[in-house]
Amino acid sequence: MRCRWLGLMAILGIMSFPLAALPEVTYSLNPSDTVLGFRAFILSIFPIQGDFRSFSGEIVLHRANLASCEVTVRVAVRSLWVHDAAIRESILAPRFLDPKADPFMRYDGHCVQGGLAGTLTLHGQTHPFDMRVIWAAHDIVARGALSRAKWAIVAEPFLAGPIVDIEIRIHNAVPFPHPNPSGINNETHGARSLRTSGTQQRLFGQGH
To answer: What pLDDT, on the 0 to 100 scale, is given for residue 24?
Structure first.
């Protein structure tokens, strides 16, 4: 893995070569180095969080402007993991995510100042969905707040709460350009941990 990152950094040549000499770079998103998670609150108090175990995507950085990018992520809805199996089945029910009717969700976005602007296709609905980007010490984190009603996810509106927090966390990421170099580490260090496939994956840092 270390060799892979060193290779990508060499390709980017961010510190050594003129910007015009950089190639277009495509960075793959997959479960080996990326966590795609969510968090909701029962009765607006008790947190439920989980993640998706099957997805693919990519980030394309442009040669002429590294602050310009496109992001695409495609997620298998049924790959949802939640610690409680009964809660998982409830989330996969027809009036929630309903993978039988819509087995995949998809995000298509592009870079804007401070984050991503794009669209999310989920539960048979496509609507704008913007995410803010946080540059942590070694990770790149994108977070957004999903209004369930907008995507017609209407089951248990009071019990499950109206908003679901979405997070994409890329571990040990290549150094994406930051619009404010003095604010590279602008995520608080405390983080709530979620055990994923035998390792600790940081999701939803405190202060979110």
So the answer is: 76
pLDDT tens, 22-57?
567 888 899 998 999 999 887 767 888 999 999 999
| SS3 labels along the chain | CHHHHHHHHHHHCCCCCCHHHCCCEEEEECCCCEEEEEEEEECCCEEEEEEECCEEEEEEEECCEEEEEEEEEEEEHHHEEECCHHHHHHHCCCCCCCCCCCCEEEEEEEEECCEEEEEEEECCEEEECCEEEEECCCCEEEEEEEEHHHHCCCCCHHHHCCEEEEEEEECCCCCCCCCCHHHCCCCCCCEEEEEECCEEEEEEECCC
| Token output for 19 | 């910007």
SS (H, E, C) 3-14: HHHHHHHHHHCC
Return the residue matching tokens 């609150």.
Answer: 41
Domain 2-205 is of which CATH architecture? Beta Barrel (2.40)
pLDDT at position 75, please? 97
Most distant pair of Cα atoms in the chain: their distance: 54
